[in-house]
Amino acid sequence: MKHFGEDTWDFIRDDRFIQWVLFPDAENNTWWEQWMAAHPEQIPVLEKARGMVLMLHESTPPAPVNDQLLEEVYAALDQEVAKQQETELPVAASVKRLSPYRWWWAAAAILGGIVLVSIYLKKENKTPIAGQLKSHTEDQQLIRVNNTGENQVAWLTDGSSVVLKAGASIKHDAFLQHSQREVYLKGDAFFDIAKDAARPFVVYTPKVGIRVLGTSFSVSEVNGTLTVTVKTGKIAVYNLADKKQQSYIVTPNHQIHFNALTAVFVPDSLDRRHMEELQPVVTPPAFAYDNTPVISIFKALESAYSIKINASEDVFAKCMITTNITNETFENKLKIICAAINASYTISKGQVYITGKPCS
Amino acid sequence: MPAMIDVRFDEAALWKRFKSGDPTAFTLIYREYTVHLFQYGFRFCTDQEKLKDMIQDLFIEMWNSRNTIADDVAIRFYLCRSLKYKLIRANYQYRSASGKQDKYLHDVQQPETNVEDRIIDSEISDSRSVLLDNAIKKLSRRQQEIITLRFYMGFTNAQIAEMMHMKYQSVSNLLYSALGRIKETLETTPFSRRLLETFYLFF
């Protein structure tokens, strides 16, 4: 028998390794990060084994399952549950609750099998208070200004978020529909960018362009010197006036200063104290709801994304849902909610319109 | 990338709720795991209607006997094992991956074209999985099963041993030989060898 990449075998036969690669969670991440820190020389082999496992994982879905068939099973079992509930619980206790059947199916349809059902994650009925941002539209672009004295979160429809420091503002296409996601920034902000390799994210400050290759970073300006600091991932910074747009790559725990007068980039690294300061004071709110009226969810989305959502209070007053859509893009959030209440949405002229029937 | 990473079910909590008779927990379980049961069951039984009935029965029995089922259960493993026993009792034995199942698969997949054409057309990552798919199809049915159980389902060696009725040590041997066989197949076409070397996989 010929041997495959021998060195990876110790990983591949390790149950804990397989669990981590296929089902990473906070606990096993920590465990393996510590392991890697203790065995840095093994990291290349570990990465190789990881690649193999993932490739095999992707290659081995045994057979695609016919949706029709699944639906039949769900319908039969739903009926069984309903039947038993009737006999065991004569009192109709779950009137308001959305039929879990419909909800799951909706989510599955949207996410193609990636399901985020969390009926029991959040106990309290909290509506996230998103930004108190002032917003208006200019030249078909959405402008959002933080006039408060505190940090405020601005959500973007692609799933990214921007923590705007006091006085900062951003301008962007409300739905970021173009092949490049572009945001114009004035003032200081912390960006957490959702990965989308097909659509690069670019932040323009008046003088400097920041092309985002990875995930989170802050931008601040003091006395004409702009400082870009990277927390995670990788970014490329370039002078907008430079015709060749020669860019500088900035990696985590590093920052780069740009002086507008001298037009020179100066790289710098950070100590721990500075890194801690970098953490935004405001954590983006979770979009997690437990039996919450959809009307108030729409309100929360409206204020988080600065996008008007037109939904009739009369029609949807009785619709309640339970869901966690924190990590979804704006449109997926809409899709999940609409599927759950059997409504549909349209986007027109920068606004969202929800149509549907009242919930019983 | 494997799906369902960001939000995973807290299995233990879900199981506890299921055992206490919470119908929502039960609903979550069957909506989550029915797909896996079909995927697993197709290896034994290509009669979809039969399989569907068995899966339904399995869940209903599980719900009715929730009081007596173990407290500490890896749900997916428990379900797959139960389905396997059920199928065996009903006299469904292993079947090879070719034959009816392939016929069924072809309804869903794209029509089989020249592999090289597909490679040229598709992205590198896609072509890698095409090659790997073909190599896996050449494995024996036991080898195919262990590859699925290990890398698709993510079962532990001990779970695989129980599921496939083998000694613990034999699990390693079978897995090792399956991977070796995959490499052997991949090496037979120069193109795939080059491709895989680029990614340092299997070599």
Structure description:
- The complex is a heterodimer of chains A (360) and B (203).
- Chain A is an alpha+beta fold and 360 residues long.
- Chain A has three domains: 6-59, no CATH class; 67-128 and 285-360, Phage tail protein beta-alpha-beta fold; 134-278, Jelly Rolls (Sandwich).
- Chain A has ten helices and 20 strands.
- Chain A has helices at residues 9-12, 15-22, 26-38, 43-59, 67-88, 100-111, 272-278, 294-305, 313-316, 330-341, and strands at 134-138, 141-145, 152-155, 161-164, 169-172, 181-186, 189-192, 201-204, 208-212, 216-222, 225-232, 235-239, 247-250, 254-259, 264-269, 288-293, 309-310, 320-324, 344-348, 351-355.
- In chain A, strands 1-2-5-6-8-9-12-13 form an eight-stranded mixed β-sheet, with no helix packed on it. In chain A, strands 3-4-7-10-11-14-15 form a seven-stranded antiparallel β-sheet, with no helix packed on it.
- In chain A, helix 2 crosses helix 4 and helix 6 runs antiparallel to helix 10 (330-341).
- The model of chain A is unreliable at 88-131 (pLDDT under 50).
- With 203 residues, chain B is mainly α.
- Chain B has two domains: 11-89, Rna Polymerase Sigma Factor, Chain: A; 110-198, Winged helix-like DNA-binding domain superfamily/Winged helix DNA-binding domain (Arc Repressor Mutant, subunit A).
- Chain B has eleven helices and no strands.
- In chain B, helix 2 crosses helix 4 (75-89), helix 3 (48-64) crosses helix 4 (75-89) and helix 6 packs antiparallel against helix 7.
- The relative contact order of chain B is 0.09.
- Residues 1-8 and 96-125 of chain B have low confidence and may be disordered.
- Chains A and B meet through helix 2, helix 4, helix 5 and helix 6 of A and helix 2, helix 3, helix 5, helix 7 and helix 8 of B.
- Chain A: Residues 287-354 form the Protein FecR C-terminal domain.
- Chain A: Residues 148-235 form the FecR protein domain.
